[in-house]
Design a protein that fits this description.
Elements lengths: L2 E4 L10 E4 L6 H7 L18 E6 L9 H7 L9 E3 L10 E4 L13
Length: 112
């Protein structure tokens, strides 16, 4: 099974985490299943950027993003060349290293 390493994030995952993932599962679903509460204001419908993540390792192993995801990513805070929406980035057969950006465009957290 592939693994996802979530780099430390001050609020969501202070110590980081290494988690086994199922093939085809999204990065967001892996995180949520393991108590890493990445925001997802649009309920995983690719209609916002709150689940924006940066794939530090394994980016090229994933399927390419679709046009809708690319359009949404253009609005993300801290966009980088290896950015993806966690709700759209599916796990394949290679391990991933994921950074959760410190900020989203949401003024108020959905979890509060």
């Amino acid at each position: 099974m592939p693994k996802i390493v979530f780099l430390p994030h001050p609020e969501l995952c202070p110590d980081g985490a290494e988690i086994e993932a199922k093939l085809g599962e999204t990065v967001l679903d892996v995180a949520l299943r393991n108590g890493i509460d990445i925001e997802h204001a649009c309920e995983k419908s690719c209609a916002c950027t709150t689940c924006h993540v940066i794939v530090r390792e394994g980016f090229d192993s994933m399927e390419e993003s679709c046009e809708l995801e690319d359009d949404m990513l253009d609005k993300a805070w801290g966009l980088e060349p290896d950015s993806r929406l966690g709700c759209q980035a599916q796990v394949v057969d290679e391990d991933l290293v994921i950074e959760i950006p410190k900020y989203t465009l949401n003024m108020v957290s959905e979890s509060q």
